[in-house]
Amino acid sequence: MNDSQDTAGVIAPPPLLYVGTLAVALLANWLRPLPITPDAITRWPGAAIAVAGLVLAVRGRRTMTRAGTNVNPYKPTITIVDSGPFGFSRNPLYVAMTIMLVGLTLAANTWWGIIMAMPLLLLMHFGVIRREERYLEGKFGEPYLAYRRRVRRYL
Fold first, then answer.
1. How confident is the model over 38-75, as pLDDT tens digits?
2. What are 94-104's pLDDT values in tens digits?
3. Under a CB-based contact definition with an 8 Å cutoff, are residues 44 and 94 in contact?
4. Domain annotation covers residue 6
5. Residue 1 within a domain
6. Do the domain assignments include residue 4?
7. Is the pTM here over 0.70, yes or no?
8. At how many degrees (to 10) do helices 112-124 and 14-31 cross?
9. In terms of residue numbers, what domain contains 61?
10. 112 CB contacts (<8 Å, ≥6 apart)?
């Protein structure tokens, strides 16, 4: 199997899906504002939540890099990573991006980010995560299944 076949076949790069969703939400808010609160008190808590998501994403990426596997879903997975944040979630990078999206949505004080998150999360579940799970099960077999039994998909 060559490298182009040894991938999960995700529908799009996950960061692009999240950035695209945020961009659409901000555009929708510009066209038709839909504030969460009238006085934008969500700005600083939202920023703090986004930073927490960023910290988790950086930690998850470093954990994958140190384990010697590819972060890019279009490249082969080299090993199952089960340390660091992968010890409590099989998808900490996607959880982190969701946390960042929610935080930035609160910081922008718009319901549009929450509304747009619903189809995004369905797209991520079926178009990315389920495909990755099938790929990892086929590539690693029982060691991946054991990891799946030990660690939750999300939180």
1. 988 999 999 999 999 999 999 999 999 999 999 999 99
2. 999 999 999 99
3. no
4. no
5. no
6. no
7. yes
8. 160
9. 14-150
10. 24, 25, 26, 28, 29, 34, 105
